[in-house]
Write a structure and sequence with these properties.
The complex is a heterotrimer of chains A (about 475), B (about 475) and C (about 90). Chain A is α+β, with helices and mostly antiparallel strands. Chain A folds into three domains: about 290 residues, no CATH class; about 110 residues, no CATH class; about 60 residues, Arc Repressor Mutant, subunit A. The longest helix of chain A is centred in the middle third of the chain and has 20 residues. The N and C termini of chain A lie far apart (about 90 Å). Chain B has 15 helices and eleven strands. Chain B has a domain of about 260 residues: Amidase signature (AS) domain (Amidase signature (AS) enzymes, Alpha-Beta Complex). Chain B is an alpha/beta fold and about 475 residues long. Chain C has a domain of about 50 residues: Histone, subunit A (Orthogonal Bundle). In chain C, about 35% of the residues lie in helices and about 10% in strands. In chain C, a hairpin with a 2-residue loop joins strand 1 and strand 2. Classes of the chains: A alpha+beta (about 475), B alpha/beta (about 475), C mainly alpha (about 90). Chains in contact: A-B, A-C, B-C. At the B-C interface, helix 9, helix 10, helix 11, helix 12 and helix 13 of B face helix 1, helix 2 and strand 2 of C. Strand 9 of chain A pairs antiparallel with strand 2 of chain C, so a sheet runs across the interface.
Chain lengths: ~475, ~475, ~90
C-alpha cells in the first residue's frame, strides 16, 4: 500500500441543554415514554408553526465563542428538504448561508508514539438546527416504529475545515470540542446517549496531488473510539481501492462497530438535492453588540483559563491537565479547594487516591457518594494530623463505599487523633507503672528502652494522639522521674 | 323578514335585544343550507349538532348580558383552518379523514367570542386554484349562476356568504383567494396585512403569503370580524407584535381629500372591458366625493404572476412534503417500503393541480435552477414591494380590479393551468408586498354577474380601506343572488 | 420541459406518474414554465438584508418547557402500534 495523505473534515452534532425544544414548548429532556414529549408542532401537524427558542440561539452563540468563532449579527434559518420517517415535516429547519457562527479555531494536543503534538483546527461554521425522531425497528412484524420525542431537540452542527489528518487528530479534536461545550455549559456531550454525534468526511490523496480526492461521509459515529476506528478503516479501504486502480465513490457510509468496517448506506442515497430556501415561518435573528457582549460575559471560565489558574496555584502541569480535561473532575476540585484552600494538597489526594479508585472502577466520577466538601475535609484532617496519612486512605475507602462524613468515619473506626494531653499523661503513667523495670533501666542510662516504652504508649494511644506528642510527653515524664 | 340576509351588526342588535335567539338564527341558516347547499355545494362538512350546541351556549352568554361582538353569530370556516375534533380536509383526498388535535388561533379567538360554527367551507384543494373546482369533495357553484364558478380558493366561503348560508365566513388568501371569490360572488372579502392575523392552524400553502381574513356581506362586517381575529400570537413568530386598532373606527368619516392611485398596468389590455369600466366608474364616484385620483405605474406587474407562482409553489412543495400517509392523511394500501408507501399515498391523495405546484416548486428550488427561478422571484418580490412603497408615497389607497373577468363557466379554463395562473394578475402583488386589500362589488355585467374592485392599503392600514369600501358600499345598489 | 426533468422532479416530490400521465404533465409544465421564464429577462438579485424584520434575540421565545400533548391525540390520525407511528421497515 502506498502512502496517502488523509484529508478529514468533521461535522459534530451537539444537543443543547435547553429546557424546551427549539421550536416548541415540549420538554427537551433525554428519553421519556414513546411520543409523550410531542405536540402538534414537533410532530409536524398541518398548520403548525415553529417558535424559536431564545436560549437555544444563545447557547449556539455561546458555543461559537467557546470555539473562537465570529458571530453573524444577522442570521437566517433555512429549510433543508428531504423525506425520512424520522423527520415529520419532511424538512429540517437548519441554516445555510447565514449561520449563527463562522470562522472559529480550536487548538488540539495529541500524542503520536509518545511524542506530543499540537495543531489548530479551523471551524467553518456552527449553525442551529433541530434533531430528528427515533426509529425503532420491529423485526418481528417487519415494520419500523417512529417515536418523535427527540424531534425538535435543539442541535448545533459544528463543521470543520478539512484540517484533520489522522484518526488521532480527529479523536483529540472531538474530545476537545466535547470539553469546550461542557465548560460552556451548552451540551452534556454524552456520546453514549447521542447528545454528541459525529459525521466524518474523509478522502485521501497522494503527496503529489494538488486536489483532494473523492470523499466518503461516515454518518453518526457515537463514540470517540468508533471515530478513530472508522477513520482508520476508511483510510485502509480507500487506499486499497486506489492501489488497485479503482475509484472512491462519493457516498454516505455507516460504521459497523462489531465488524470494525464502514458500509455503504443506500437508503440515504436517493436525493441529495435538499432544495434549501429561507424558512418563511421564522423571521431572522439579529444581535446587537450588547447582546453579544452579554452572552460572552455569561461564558464560564474555559479550560485554558482554569489550567493557568491551577498552574499559578502550584499544581504541576501533568496533574493540572488531568483535572482540567474532565469538567466534572475540575468542578469537584474547585469545590474542594473552596472548602479547604490548599490546592496542592487537594490535588495530591485527588490524583493519588481518588483517581486510583475511579480507575479501579470502585467509584464513578459522575456518581460520587460523597461531596467535594467532605473530600476536602478529609484532606485537611490528614494535613493537620487529625488522622494519620495512612489512616486517611482507609477513611477514604469507607467514604467511597458508603459515603459520609470523614470525621465521623474516623471516629467510629477509632482513627481520630484528638491529642488530648490529659489522656496522654494518664496513659503514659499507666504504661510506666506497668513497666517499672524498663523505667529503671532507662533511668540507669539505657536509652535503648525508650523505643520499647514509646511503642507501648503508641499502642495504647492509637487514634488519640500523634507519635510526636507521645514522644514529647514521654520524654518530659521520664525526665521528671 | 329573512334573518339570514341580515348584517352581523343588525343580528347583534336583535340578539342583544332578544328580538331573535341564537337558536332561531342558527336554525334559519341550517334550514337554508339543507335547502340550497345540495346544488351550491359550498360546505364540505356541516356541523349541525355542534352549531345547535354552540347556539345554546351563546344564548346563555347573551342572556347574562356578556355577549362579545360575534357571540351567537353563525359563521362558516374555510376547510383549511384547523378545528379541534372537526374534520379539516383542505378539500383534498389526502386529508379526507383528518381530524386536527388542536384549534387554529383564529378559531380559538372566534370560539372565545362564542360564535356558532355552521361548518367547514369548500375550497380549491390545499387552496391552490381560483375556481373551487379542484376541490376533491364539493365543487362549489356561483350563487348568481350555478353554471359558473364561485372563484377560489375560498369559493365555498364566498358562495355561502353570497347565498346567505352563513352570516359571514373565514377564508384565506395567498394570492387572491379571499378577494377574487368575493368578487365573483358579489360579496366583500378582506385580506389583512401579513402578520395581522395568526396563521397558526391555517394549513400552510405558501407560508410567506398566506393570511386568514373575513368574507362578509360588506366592509363593516369584515371589520367587525377582523377586530376579533387579529393580534399577535405566541404560536406564530410572523404575527405582528403591534396593537390592534378598532377597524370600524374610520367608517363613516369623509373620504374627501383621500388620494387614490390607479396604477395603469392594472387597467391594461388583459382586463375585460366591462370590468375596467365598472372599476373606472367607481373611481369617478370617489372623485366626485372629493377624493383625488393619482395616476401611477407599477412596471414590474408583468413579472408578478411568475414571481408569485415560483415563490408560492416553492414554499408549497416544502409545506406539502409532510403528507406522507404516516402521521395522518391518506395512506395507500400499497407499498412495502417507506419510499413506495409515501409515493403511492401522495400520488393517490393529491389532485392534479397540487401535483403541478409540487413539481413547479421543486423545479424552482432544485440545484442548478434556484438562482434563475426562486432567487429571481425573491428579488422581484423586493422590487414589487419597493414599487408599492413609492406609489404609497403619493397616495392613501390604490384602486384596481379584483379579477380580469367576472366568474366564468365551470368548465372553462380548467384544462389550461397556465391560463388560470394569468388570471391572478390583479391580486398576487398584494400578497407579495404583504399589504392589506379588500374586494367589494362595484357593478354587474350584462349577464348580471358581479364585478369586484380591490382597494389596497398601506401596511397595517386596514381601517382606511374599510372606510373607503364602506363609503362606496353605502351608495351601491346591491343585487342579491337569487338562489 | 422534458420527460427526464419531470421524472426527476416527481422523484423529489415523491409522486408517481404513469407514462401517459407523464406526457400530459410534461405538456402542462412546459406551458407553465413559459410563464415563469418571463422573469429571465430582468436582471436583479435578492438581498436577504433587505428582508430583515429586525427581530432581536430578546424578542424570541423564552425557554420554558410546558406540558406536551396526550400521546393519543398525537396519534389520533395515524396507524399506530406501541404508542408509535407505524412505518414500513426502514433498512439502513
Amino acid at each position: 500500500m502506498s502512502a496517502y495523505i488523509p484529508v478529514i473534515g468533521l461535522e459534530i452534532h451537539a444537543e443543547l441543554l435547553t429546557k424546551s425544544k427549539v421550536f416548541c414548548t415540549c420538554s427537551a429532556e433525554f428519553g421519556g415514554d414513546k411520543n409523550t414529549r410531542c405536540c402538534p408542532v414537533c410532530s409536524g401537524m398541518p398548520g403548525t408553526l415553529p417558535i424559536i427558542n431564545q436560549t437555544a440561539v444563545e447557547y449556539a452563540v455561546k458555543a461559537g465563542f467557546a470555539l473562537g468563532c465570529d458571530i453573524n449579527k444577522f442570521s437566517v434559518f433555512d429549510r433543508k428538504n428531504y423525506f425520512y420517517p424520522d423527520l415529520p415535516k419532511a424538512y429540517q429547519i437548519s441554516q445555510l448561508n447565514l449561520p449563527l457562527c463562522i470562522n472559529g479555531l480550536v487548538p488540539i494536543e495529541y500524542e503520536v508514539n509518545g511524542e506530543k503534538k499540537t495543531k489548530n483546527i479551523r471551524i467553518n461554521r456552527i449553525h442551529l438546527e433541530e434533531d430528528a425522531g427515533k426509529l425503532i425497528h420491529d423485526d418481528l412484524n417487519g415494520v419500523s416504529l417512529a417515536d418523535y420525542n427527540r424531534c425538535g431537540i435543539p442541535l448545533i452542527e459544528i463543521v470543520t475545515e478539512p484540517d484533520i489528518g489522522s484518526a488521532d487528530e480527529a479523536k483529540a479534536f472531538v474530545e476537545k470540542i466535547a470539553l469546550l461545550l461542557q465548560y460552556a455549559g451548552v451540551c452534556d456531550c454524552k456520546m453514549e446517549q447521542g447528545s454528541l454525534r459525529c459525521d466524518v468526511n474523509i478522502s485521501i490523496m497522494k503527496p503529489t496531488d494538488t486536489e483532494f480526492g473523492t470523499r466518503a461521509e461516515i454518518k453518526n459515529l457515537n463514540s470517540i473510539k468508533a471515530i478513530g476506528r472508522a477513520i482508520d478503516f476508511e483510510i485502509y479501504r480507500q487506499s486499497k481501492l486506489l492501489d488497485m486502480g479503482k475509484r472512491v465513490v462519493q457516498e454516505t457510509r455507516r460504521f459497523d462497530d462489531n465488524r470494525g468496517e464502514t458500509k455503504s448506506m443506500r437508503s440515504k442515497e436517493d436525493a441529495h438535492d435538499y432544495r434549501y430556501f429561507p424558512e418563511p415561518d421564522i423571521l431572522q435573528v439579529n444581535f446587537t453588540d450588547e447582546d453579544l457582549d452579554a452572552i460572552r460575559a455569561k461564558l464560564p471560565e474555559m479550560p485554558y483559563k482554569r489550567l493557568e489558574r491551577y498552574l499559578a496555584d502550584g499544581l504541576n502541569e501533568n496533574d493540572a491537565k488531568i483535572i482540567v480535561n474532565q469538567k466534572v473532575l475540575s468542578d469537584f476540585f474547585d469545590s474542594a479547594v473552596k472548602a479547604y484552600a490548599n490546592p496542592k494538597s487537594v490535588c495530591n489526594f485527588l490524583i493519588g487516591e481518588m483517581m486510583r479508585r475511579i480507575n479501579l472502577g470502585e467509584v464513578s466520577l459522575e456518581n460520587l457518594p460523597f461531596t467535594a466538601e467532605q473530600f476536602a475535609k478529609l484532606v485537611e484532617m490528614a494535613d493537620t494530623d487529625k488522622v494519620s496519612k495512612n489512616d486517611a486512605k482507609d477513611v477514604f475507602r469507607t467514604m467511597c463505599e458508603k459515603g459520609g462524613d470523614p470525621e465521623e468515619i474516623a471516629k467510629a473506626a477509632g482513627l481520630l487523633i484528638t491529642n488530648d494531653t490529659g489522656k496522654v499523661i494518664e496513659v503514659i503513667d499507666e504504661v510506666l507503672a506497668a513497666n517499672d523495670k524498663a523505667v529503671a533501666q532507662y533511668k540507669g542510662g539505657d536509652q535503648k528502652v525508650f523505643g520499647f516504652l514509646m511503642g507501648q504508649c503508641t499502642k495504647a494511644l492509637k487514634g488519640v494522639c500523634t507519635p510526636k506528642v507521645i514522644k514529647e510527653e514521654l520524654e518530659k515524664k521520664l525526665k521528671s522521674l | 323578514m329573512d334573518i339570514t340576509a341580515l348584517k352581523i351588526r343588525d343580528m347583534r342588535n336583535m340578539l342583544d335585544k332578544k328580538e331573535i335567539s341564537a337558536a332561531e338564527l342558527t336554525d334559519a341558516y341550517l334550514k337554508r343550507i339543507t335547502e340550497i347547499d345540495g346544488k351550491l355545494e359550498s360546505f364540505i362538512t356541516v356541523t349541525a349538532d355542534e352549531a345547535k350546541a354552540d347556539a345554546a351556549k351563546a344564548q346563555e352568554i347573551i342572556d347574562r348580558g356578556e355577549a362579545s361582538a360575534l357571540t351567537g353569530i353563525p359563521l362558516a370556516i374555510k376547510d383549511n383552518i384547523c378545528t379541534d375534533g372537526v374534520k379539516t380536509t383542505c378539500a383534498s383526498k389526502m386529508l379526507e379523514d383528518f381530524v386536527p388535535p388542536y384549534n387554529a388561533t383564529a378559531m380559538e379567538k372566534l370560539n372565545s367570542n362564542n360564535i356558532v360554527m355552521l361548518g367547514k367551507a369548500s375550497m380549491d384543494e390545499f387552496a391552490m386554484g381560483g375556481s373551487t373546482q379542484t376541490s376533491a369533495f364539493k365543487k362549489t357553484k356561483n350563487p348568481y349562476d350555478l353554471n359558473r364558478v364561485p372563484g377560489g380558493s375560498s369559493g365555498g366561503s364566498a358562495a355561502a356568504v353570497s347565498a346567505s348560508l352563513c352570516a359571514a365566513a373565514l377564508g384565506s388568501d395567498t394570492g387572491g383567494s379571499i378577494r377574487q371569490p368575493a368578487s365573483f360572488c358579489g360579496v366583500t372579502g378582506l385580506k389583512p396585512t401579513y402578520g395581522r392575523v395568526s396563521r397558526y392552524g391555517l394549513v400552510a400553502f405558501a407560508s410567506s403569503l398566506d393570511q386568514i381574513g373575513p368574507i362578509a356581506k360588506d366592509a363593516h362586517d369584515c371589520a367587525i370580524i377582523l377586530n376579533e381575529i387579529s393580534g399577535y400570537d405566541y404560536h406564530d413568530g410572523t404575527s405582528a407584535k403591534r396593537d390592534v386598532p378598532d377597524f370600524t373606527a374610520k367608517i363613516g368619516q369623509s373620504i374627501a381629500g383621500m388620494k387614490i392611485a390607479l396604477p395603469k398596468e392594472f387597467y391594461a389590455d388583459g382586463i375585460d372591458d366591462e370590468v375596467r369600466n365598472a372599476v373606472t366608474e367607481a373611481a369617478k364616484w370617489y372623485e366626485k366625493q372629493g377624493a383625488v385620483l393619482v395616476d401611477c405605474s407599477m412596471p414590474s406587474l408583468k413579472y408578478a404572476v411568475a414571481a408569485y407562482y415560483l415563490i408560492a409553489s416553492a414554499e408549497a412543495s416544502s409545506n406539502l412534503s409532510r403528507y406522507d400517509g404516516i402521521k395522518y392523511g391518506h395512506r395507500s394500501e400499497f407499498g412495502d417500503s417507506y419510499n413506495d408507501l409515501i409515493c403511492n399515498s401522495r400520488s393517490e391523495g393529491f389532485g392534479d393541480e397540487v401535483k403541478r405546484r409540487i413539481l413547479l416548486g421543486n423545479y424552482a428550488l432544485s440545484s442548478g435552477y434556484y438562482d434563475a427561478y426562486y432567487g429571481k422571484a425573491m428579488a422581484l418580490k423586493q422590487k414589487i414591494r419597493e414599487e408599492y412603497a413609492s406609489i404609497f408615497e403619493n397616495c392613501d389607497i390604490i384602486l384596481t380590479p379584483t379579477a380580469p373577468t367576472v366568474a366564468y363557466g365551470v368548465n372553462e379554463n380548467i384544462s389550461d393551468p397556465a391560463k388560470m395562473y394569468q388570471a391572478d394578475i390583479c391580486t398576487v402583488t398584494v400578497n407579495i408586498a404583504s399589504l392589506p386589500g379588500i374586494s367589494t362589488p362595484c357593478g354587474y355585467d350584462k349577464n348580471g354577474m358581479p364585478i369586484g374592485m380591490s382597494i389596497i392599503g398601506k401596511h397595517w392600514d386596514e381601517a382606511t380601506i374599510i372606510q373607503a369600501a364602506d363609503a362606496y358600499e353605502k351608495q351601491f345598489e346591491y343585487v342579491p343572488a337569487k338562489i | 420541459m422534458d420527460l427526464e426533468m419531470v421524472k426527476y422532479l416527481s422523484k423529489l416530490g415523491k409522486l408517481n406518474f404513469t407514462d401517459e400521465e407523464l406526457e400530459k404533465v410534461a405538456g402542462d409544465m412546459t406551458s407553465i414554465i413559459e410563464i415563469m421564464d418571463t422573469i429571465k429577462e430582468i436582471d436583479i438579485t435578492y438581498d436577504p438584508l433587505k428582508d430583515n424584520h429586525n427581530v432581536y434575540l430578546n424578542g424570541l421565545r423564552e425557554d420554558k418547557a410546558m406540558e406536551s400533548f396526550p400521546t393519543e391525540k398525537i396519534l389520533q390520525n395515524a396507524v399506530k402500534s406501541e404508542n408509535c407511528f407505524v412505518v414500513p421497515k426502514v433498512v439502513e
